[in-house]
Amino acid sequence: MNNKLTLGIFGFGVVGQGLHDIIKTKNLNLAIKRFVIKHPEKKRTLPAELFTTDANAVLDDPEINTVVELIDDAEAAFDIVSSALRSGKNVVSANKKMIATHLADLIAIQQEYGTSLLYEGAVCGSIPIIRNLEEYYDNELLHAVTGIFNGSSNYILSKIFNENLAYATALKQAQDLGFAETDPTLDVGGYDPKFKLAIVASHAYGLYIAPEAILNIGIDKLSASDIQFAKEKNFKIKLVPTAREINDKSVILYVLPKLIPRDNILYGVENEYNGVLVKAAFADEQFFYGKGAGGHPTGSAVLSDIAALRYGYKYEYKKHIDANGLAYSTDWEIEVYLRYKEESFIEHLKFTSISERYYAQDFKYIIGKVNLSNILKNRDIIDREGYFLAEIA
Ligand SMILES: NC(=O)C1=CN([C@@H]2O[C@H](COP(=O)(O)OP(=O)(O)OC[C@H]3O[C@@H](n4cnc5c(N)ncnc54)[C@H](OP(=O)(O)O)[C@@H]3O)[C@@H](O)[C@H]2O)C=CC1
Ligand SMILES: N[C@@H](CC=O)C(=O)O
């Protein structure tokens, strides 16, 4: 089948322009009829008649059979995507916040209206992980999916560790390069990789987990003492989401900074690159590596989804139908490094064992084992100035 696709694209920012650059290089048997944007006063590189601020100019156009949603507003995106799917149009989106937050509704709408929503570009930019989890690992016993899922925070950490750049300078560069979200707290606070993890959990394990239920701690409270500690021990710090089946019934999910030793495959993943490490029962470890942010890498994943729609591709969400009785759990012990301010806080975390403590006037840390559920309960304190928590690999 080689159906001609007529596209209406929402968004002409980093990813929208990246997608357009790629499409114009090839004769792909697809036409872009309209771009819907927000600010009509902005200068564009394409003819003005291609742009509109009226969503209905795309949603109500019977000639447009495919909507591509690439905007930076998750709630507006949900309205656009759900209306398009309901009106019989297939959709491609890169909006991880929207997808993670509304996944159950989006699946129900697709099933009711027989339309397809694809979102490879939403998780780790150019890395084809969703279709692999959906198709290839269907019959595999997946022990874990982990790695580096956020290009901006990885870019910042690389610049800090490899070039001694200041945090604020590195963040500004990640923004200028188009890697960061409009609100970069989503990146550096670990929310963006958490949305991606929630989507991964769905395709890996058939679980719908509301992002609010998942622990995320970011890199925004990283201090010079933490960096010195990591460097002295030959670690790098990376922001690492983890989905792991801990027994036949339970899956844990969390996003934490992690102290990564030199022999760990994530140690060499730098800048805006992402890496997805899949641990499967019989295949053992497999590693996917590629650019996780930026207009062209993400545009290439979006284009791959558009092309897949030509032959009627849909996610089947088979693992949701047969979830093997798996449930989300937070009852799991991990080893952490915690820099802290108030001594009394240590009581709250209820360390089950302590292997190292250090006290100085302006730098106190503890290394030991804690239950994930206790970190989750105390997340708001850990997220304050004076605290930084990282998992030990
Ligand atoms: N940047 C990246 O590397 C990646 C981004 N993503 C995701 O892709 C999406 C787009 O990101 P990005 O391109 O970086 O964002 P940008 O901020 O560069 O662009 C956002 C675009 O959305 C348009 N827009 C915002 N609100 C509306 C609305 N209500 N209706 C129509 N258009 C609207 C803006 O219009 P206007 O031009 O008029 O301001 C702009 O063109 C986000 O969901 C992001 O999370 C996913 C993977 C990688
Ligand atoms: N802000 C995101 C963009 C891609 O998803 C990131 O930095 O990874």
TrEMBL record:
Key words, A-Z: Amino-acid biosynthesis, Methionine biosynthesis, NADP, Oxidoreductase, Threonine biosynthesis
Residues of the Homoserine dehydrogenase catalytic domain: 128-306
GO MF assignments: homoserine dehydrogenase activity; NADP binding
Pfam families: Homoserine_dh, NAD_binding_3
Aspartate/homoserine dehydrogenase NAD-binding domain ranges (all copies): 11-120
Catalytic activity: L-homoserine + NADP(+) = L-aspartate 4-semialdehyde + NADPH + H(+)
EC numbers on record: 1.1.1.3
GO BP: any one term: threonine biosynthetic process
Top-level taxonomic group: Bacteria
Annotated metabolic or biological route of this protein: Amino-acid biosynthesis; L-methionine biosynthesis via de novo pathway; L-homoserine from L-aspartate: step 3/3; Amino-acid biosynthesis; L-threonine biosynthesis; L-threonine from L-aspartate: step 3/5
Stored NCBIfam families: PRK06349.1
Protein family per UniProt: Belongs to the homoserine dehydrogenase family.
This protein's name: Homoserine dehydrogenase
Organism classification: Bacteria, Pseudomonadati, Bacteroidota, Sphingobacteriia, Sphingobacteriales
